[in-house]
Design goal:
- With 139 residues, the protein is of the alpha+beta class.
- The protein has a single domain, classed as Double Stranded RNA Binding Domain.
- The protein contains 4 helices and 5 strands; from the N terminus they run βββαβαβαα.
- The strands form 2 sheets. A 3-stranded antiparallel beta sheet has the order 3-4-5. A two-stranded antiparallel sheet has the order 1-2.
- The protein starts with a strand and ends with a helix.
Length: 139
């Protein structure tokens, strides 16, 4: 796992910054679930990561603030699969997806005015509803 992870074009994450620990997974699985540590726990120290510039780091802290520990670590648990290596790959894929989503800059919404046709359709609809309810009333 020596190749850098491509988060976005121009943003690469050094794999040496990612720490993995393993634990026993919960849930069904027979006797094997108690003996083999297949759950992968991924930890990335975002606050001190040299892979991100200051603006990206602030953006990550802002977007992922509720998912970070007090020390500024992002922790992901992967126990979807029965094999340690597959859980490790799953954790890495989820890490890339989370970071990509947090670093994506949303386009600014430009406020627009309703078109003449949409205004006309809205008023026509209101007139029809008003007429329908007027005809239901007692004379």
């Amino acid at each position: 796992m020596s190749a850098p992870l491509e988060i976005l074009p121009g943003v690469r994450l050094n794999p040496a910054e990612i720490q993995f620990t393993y634990a026993t997974s919960g849930g069904p699985g027979g006797q094997n679930v108690n003996r083999v540590a297949t759950k992968a726990v991924l930890r990335l120290h975002i606050v001190g990561s040299p892979s991100f510039n200051e603006a990206q780091r602030e953006r990550l802290i802002d977007k992922l603030g509720n998912r970070l520990t007090r020390d500024g670590d992002l922790v992901l648990h992967a126990s979807r699969h029965r094999h340690r290596e597959r859980n490790r790959e799953d954790a890495l894929e989820r890490l890339v997806a989370v970071l990509r989503g947090a670093l994506q800059v949303q386009k600014k919404r430009r406020p627009t005015k309703p078109t003449r046709g949409s205004k006309r359709r809205r008023l026509d609809s209101k007139r029809q509803n008003s007429e329908k309810k007027r005809l239901r009333r007692n004379p």
